[in-house]
Design goal:
Elements: E1 4-7, E2 13-16, H1 19-29, E3 43-48, H2 54-62, E4 67-72, H3 76-89, E5 94-97, E6 100-101, E7 106-112, H4 127-140, H5 157-171, E8 175-182, H6 184-190, E9 198-201, H7 207-212, E10 224-230, H8 235-245, E11 250-254, E12 264-270
Parallel strand pairs: 3-4, 3-9, 4-5, 6-8, 9-10
Antiparallel strand pairs: 1-2, 7-8, 10-12, 11-12
Helix pairs in contact: 4-5
C-alpha cells in the first residue's frame, strides 16, 4: 500500500496515499464552517466520509484538541491512513471507524478510486461520465492547478486537451470493494452520544441516505450540519425539506463557482 508522509499547513504530520491529495483536501475544509456554523472546544463531531481524516484533524486543531471526533470511512485502503493518523495524534479523542453510514445497515459495493480517493462512492457513474466531469473541472481550474499538475499549463491548447483526457482516464481508474454500512442512529446508540454538535457529511451521493439513517428520537441531538449534496433526482430539495421538517431554522444551499454547471452543492444547517 502506497504511503507518503505529509506535513499539513497547520504543522500536523500525517500519512496519505498521495501528499498532493491531502493538501488539496486541507484547502477545502475551512469552507465547511460558514453561515453561522461554529466549532467550539468541547464539541462532539461526527465526520461521515472522513477519508484520511483531514477535516477531523483540522477541527481538532481549531479546538486545541478539546474535541471528541467519530470519523467514518468504509474503504479499507483509505481507512488504513485514517486510523494511522488518529493513532499518531490523539487516539483517545479521535475515533476512526471502518464503516459507511447509510439509511439501513448491511453491506454494499463501493467504487474505490486509488488515484482520487475522495471520489470513492457507493453510487458510481459510468466511466465515461466520470471522465467527462474530471475533464471539465481540470480545464476549468487550469490556472489554479495544484503543483503536481501545474506542468499541464506549459503546453499549447491543442496539445493540452489530449493530456487532460489522459489525466482524467488515470484519475478515474477504479476498483470495487464490499464495505459494511451502519445507520447514524446505530452510531449514536453504540457510542452513547448525547449530542452531535457538528455533523459533516461528504459521502459522494450518499448524503440523503445518511440523514435518513437518523430515527425520529435522535434528530434533536444534532445541532449543526454541513453536507456536500449531489443534486440528482431532486436530492437537494429533499435534503432541504428533511432539515426543515426536523427543526433546523437556518438552512443555506450554495454552489462554489468551481462547480458551476455540475450537480455539486454545499448545504449548511443549524438549529
Amino acid at each position: 500500500m502506497r504511503t507518503q508522509r505529509t506535513k499539513l499547513p497547520n504543522g500536523m504530520e500525517i500519512t496519505a496515499a498521495r501528499s498532493e491529495e491531502a493538501t488539496l483536501m486541507y484547502g477545502e475544509v475551512s469552507a465547511y464552517i460558514k453561515h453561522g456554523l461554529t466549532l467550539q472546544p468541547g464539541a462532539v463531531v461526527v465526520d461521515v466520509g472522513a477519508n484520511i481524516g483531514i477535516f477531523s484533524l483540522w477541527a481538532y486543531d481549531q479546538c486545541d484538541g478539546q474535541i471528541a471526533v467519530y470519523a467514518f470511512e468504509p474503504i479499507p485502503a483509505i481507512y488504513h491512513h485514517l486510523a494511522a493518523n488518529f493513532q499518531n495524534i490523539d487516539p483517545k479523542r479521535l475515533k476512526a471507524i471502518n464503516v459507511g453510514l447509510s439509511g439501513a445497515p448491511g453491506m454494499a459495493r463501493f467504487a474505490y478510486y486509488p488515484n482520487a480517493t475522495f471520489a470513492s462512492t457507493v453510487y458510481p457513474d459510468s466511466g465515461q461520465a466520470d471522465r467527462q466531469l474530471t475533464e471539465t473541472l481540470l480545464a476549468r481550474s487550469l490556472h489554479q492547478l495544484p503543483p503536481y499538475l501545474a506542468w499541464v499549463r506549459m503546453f499549447p491548447s491543442l496539445v493540452r486537451q489530449p493530456i487532460i483526457k489522459l489525466l482524467a482516464r488515470y484519475i478515474n481508474q477504479r476498483q470495487f470493494v464490499m464495505c459494511e454500512l451502519q445507520t447514524l442512529t446505530q452510531v449514536i446508540h453504540r457510542h452513547q452520544l448525547e449530542r452531535i454538535d457538528f455533523l459533516k457529511i461528504d459521502a459522494e451521493k450518499s448524503e440523503l441516505d445518511v440523514l435518513r439513517g437518523l430515527e425520529a428520537g435522535d434528530w434533536g441531538k444534532v445541532q449543526q450540519i454541513f453536507a456536500e449534496v449531489h443534486d440528482r433526482d431532486g436530492r437537494l430539495q429533499a435534503v432541504r425539506d428533511l432539515l426543515q421538517q426536523q427543526g433546523f431554522q437556518t438552512i443555506v444551499c450554495e454552489q462554489d463557482p468551481y462547480f458551476a454547471d455540475t450537480e455539486i452543492y454545499a448545504v449548511y444547517a443549524r438549529r
